Each structure stands twice: as structure tokens, then as C-alpha cells.
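Q: Could you fold this chain for me?
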Amino acid sequence: MAVVGVVSFPLAVGFLVAWRMTRAELRRLRGDAQPKQSLAAAPPSADRFERLEQAVESIALEVERISEGQRFTTRLLSERHAQEPLAARAAAERAGQR
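A: Sure. Below is the predicted structure, expressed as C-alpha cells.
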């Protein structure tokens, strides 16, 4: 059953890629293809750069908050582990082995 999935998935992907390429080539031959306007063609504006800068700053703040939370959690877990008595730790390890 797993072999069927391993073989059929690449075949399906290959079929879809070939289908899309064939359709694109037929459109090109018929002259139907219209050039798409991209964002790269638009001249950069100060407003766009301002919004991009604000977005990057807000992402940086959120990443810093996540990092601080991870550092705090790691510190709490390491302190709890260090305060745990050796006998309780050994009992917990034995209970986990059963």
C-alpha cells in the first residue's frame, strides 16, 4: 500500500507540471498570453518603504518577546530541576522506566 503512494505521488505531480507547461505553451503559441504587471515594475515610493520599515520593526519586537519568553521558561525549568532532591529525581526516573 505504501509503495502505491510512493509511486503515485510523483506521477501526479509530474502530470500536473506537464499539464501546466503544455497549457502555457499553447497560450504562448496562440498569442493569448498577456504580460502580467509585477510589483517590481512599480517605482518604489517613500510610503511603501515606510510601511516596510514599520513591518520589519514590529516583527523584530515580536521575535524579541518570543526569545525573552523562551529564556524565562528555560531558566524556570532549570531552577526547578536544580532544586529537585536527588531521591525524588531517582524515584521519578525509576517510575518512568516501568
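A (continued): The two ends are 35 Å apart (CA to CA).
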